[in-house]
Every structure is written in C-alpha cells, then in structure tokens.
Write a sequence for this structure.
C-alpha cells in the first residue's frame, strides 16, 4: 500500500486530496502500510509457508565482532544487531498470536513495519560506517547496502504474516479478471478525458502499476496498518464516494464509445448493492482511479515524453498517491525531473512511504528533485516490473 499525503500504509494505497495520518505506507517514522499496507518488500515475496525463524541465533553470524573498530563503527554494529533481534522478536510474537488464534492488537502490522524499517536503516548506517560489510545481492532486489541477504527468511516471514493479517473480508466480491479490469477501466477513463488510443493504453499500463504498488496485485485487500484505507486501491470511504460521483459524471460518455464496459459497470453496481464499494474489485478500482488519477490522465502525453521509461511513469503516478500537490506542480513545471521539493512536511510524507527512509544519510536530506525522488523509489521497482509484465501479457492475449 503506499500513501499519498498521508502517513498511515507501499503497504504502499497510501493520499489523495488531503494529507493522511502519519502512520501507513513504507516509513520509519510512521504507522500505512498503508497505504497499504503491504509494503514493497512484502509484496516482492512469493507465498510460502511460515519461515523458520525460531532457531536463528539472536545475533547474525555474519556480524562476528571484527577487530579494531572505531567507536562509531562499534556503535553502528551494536545498533544493527539490536535491530535484527528486535525484528525477530516481533515476528515470533505475531506468528505465535496467529497460530494460537489469539486476538491481534489494533493495527497489528505497524510494529512489524517499524521493526523492519529499523533493521534496514541500521544496516545502511552500518555499511556507511563499514563499506566492506556490503554483501551479496538478495532475492528481493534491495540494494545490498541496505539489506544483508542472510536475513532473507525474515522478510519472507514478514510477507507471510501480512498476507494473513490483510486477507480480504469474507464478503468481498472478487473478479475473475482483476488485472484486465484495471487496464480496461483506466483506458476507458483516459479516452473519456480526451486521450488518443496510444496514450489511453499508457493510462491502463500505469494504473496497473498503481494496483501493484498499493496491494501487490491483491484484490479487495485489508490493511494491517490502517483502519481507514481498504480495498483494491486502498482508498478511504470519502475518497471512494468522491470517485463514485466523478464516475457518474462521465459514465454516459463512456457508454457511448464502450457499451460493453458500461454494461459490466451496471452489473457490478447491482452486485455490490449496499456493500462497501471498496470491497467489490471493479467499483473499488473505478472509484479510486476517478478520485485520484483521472484528472492527471490528460498529462500523460507530456509525462511519457519527459519519462520514457514505463517504470518511471508508474512511479510518478504513485507520487500522486503520496504527495499529490507537489507532483501536480512538478507536472506543470518546465523541467519535471529538476523540480525540487523542500517542504519538511512533504519530505516527511516521502520518508513515511519508504523514500529517503533508511539510514541517517537518507533521512538527513532536506530537499530533493523529482529525478532524485524517482531514483530513491527502489522499493517499488519489483512491483512495477511485475505490473509491466502482467500488462504485456494482457496486451498479447488481446492481440491473439
């Protein structure tokens, strides 16, 4: 789930017209995953059985005390060992609660999220102090300076716990074609906003990236780090209602050029009935896109020109989730990549969503250009790459 101008969960869905509470999405200081709730690393892990963390030693064997450390290096090593042990402890505690069917605390993913962030941050501080400690690549694609690959089982367990805690509610209304739904809705909305076929297709691709960023592609997901943001695009109730109103305003124009999509929409509206629209995948995606992104779709031709990499395009639209006002200002500027933000609140929102979050050096930044921000969004890379792959798969199926 990522956040927008809020601070509650990568995980990520994470926002929109107003600032979110500082609690979600990928951050060291907060509380969404929020946005969702799920966070970027967690989303990179495939579903597996509970990781065997119970027998791991309290201190990583990779960190046997080296000789002749300076006081600052010794302090960094001790801080990292403590962060790893703290992360293991909360993983064990939450696993024991789940396996024994004990009641979970409010926002059960928050302590996990903060402990994970603390571990990554302490590792970056350690490798800054002792560059020789940078190890081998890891399966999650996290830069090795931020993560010790020997601790991969910890992140696997982290992901598995979130999957349990954020499972969709029993009354959620799934779609048999969740990814195609996102692409079709975004493409139709973009056409209604005046885009040509090529750029409307780009809107579909970008929107699929948002779905992966917010929920890792899990439809109707809950949120273990937020009591407010839920569903396939991790929206709040007011955001969903705003999206419903905006959809109603363009529905007739979409019906004129895509009657089949309009018929599907009528069917899903009837199916949802009095259900929270965030737990019907179709209506959740539709309303979320209308609330936060539809008005930005007309900028896609300029965005594609300024950012030819599809992953960067997805990152920019995710920033509409996290810091909408500055991002819209950047889009209106003469040079998107060079547009600089320095407001402390904006920088805090970025950190709360795992951007400039890990290690003292990253957190010390007081300003950044959009080019630097996009580069710092490395925790989103895996999600967006999988979204791009899924989009290409859908595109190939349609051609076939």
């Amino acid at each position: 789930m990522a956040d927008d101008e809020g601070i509650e969960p990568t995980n990520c869905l994470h926002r929109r017209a107003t600032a979110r509470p500082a609690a979600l999405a990928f951050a060291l200081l907060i509380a969404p995953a929020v946005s969702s709730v799920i966070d970027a690393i967690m989303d990179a892990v495939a579903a597996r059985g509970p990781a065997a963390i119970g027998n791991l030693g309290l201190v990583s064997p990779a960190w046997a005390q080296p000789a002749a450390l300076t006081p600052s290096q010794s302090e960094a090593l001790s801080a990292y060992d403590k962060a790893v042990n703290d992360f293991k402890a909360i993983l064990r505690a939450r696993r024991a609660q789940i396996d024994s069917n004990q009641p979970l605390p409010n926002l059960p993913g928050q302590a996990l999220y903060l402990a994970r962030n603390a571990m990554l941050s302490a590792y970056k501080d350690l490798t800054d102090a002792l560059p020789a400690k940078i190890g081998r690549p890891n399966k999650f694609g996290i830069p090795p300076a931020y993560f010790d690959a020997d601790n991969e089982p910890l992140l696997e367990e982290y992901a598995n716990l979130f999957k349990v805690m954020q499972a969709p509610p029993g009354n959620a209304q799934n779609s048999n074609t969740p990814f195609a739904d996102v692409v079709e809705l975004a493409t139709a909305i973009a056409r209604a906003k005046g885009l040509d076929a090529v750029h409307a297709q780009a809107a579909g691709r970008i929107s699929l990236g948002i779905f992966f960023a917010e929920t890792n592609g899990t439809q109707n997901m809950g949120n273990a780090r937020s009591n407010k943001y839920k569903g396939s695009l991790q929206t709040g109730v007011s955001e969903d209602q705003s999206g419903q109103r905006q959809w109603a305003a363009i529905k007739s124009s979409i019906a004129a050029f895509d009657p089949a999509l309009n018929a599907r929409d009528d069917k899903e509206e009837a199916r949802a009935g009095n259900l929270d629209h965030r737990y019907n995948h179709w209506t959740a995606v539709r309303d979320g896109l209308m609330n936060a992104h539809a008005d930005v779709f007309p900028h896609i031709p300029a965005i594609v020109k300024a950012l030819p990499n599809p992953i960067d395009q997805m990152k920019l639209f995710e920033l509409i989730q996290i810091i909408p006002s500055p991002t819209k200002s950047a889009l209106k500027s003469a040079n998107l990549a060079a547009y600089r933000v320095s407001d402390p609140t904006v920088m805090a929102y970025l950190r709360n969503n795992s951007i400039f979050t890990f290690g003292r050096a990253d957190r010390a930044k007081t300003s950044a250009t959009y080019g630097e921000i996009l580069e710092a969004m490395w925790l989103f890379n895996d999600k967006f790459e999988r979204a791009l792959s899924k989009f290409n798969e859908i595109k190939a199926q349609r051609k076939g």
Observations:
- The chain is about 55% helix and 0% strand.
- Residues 1-52, 54-59 have pLDDT under 50 and may be disordered.
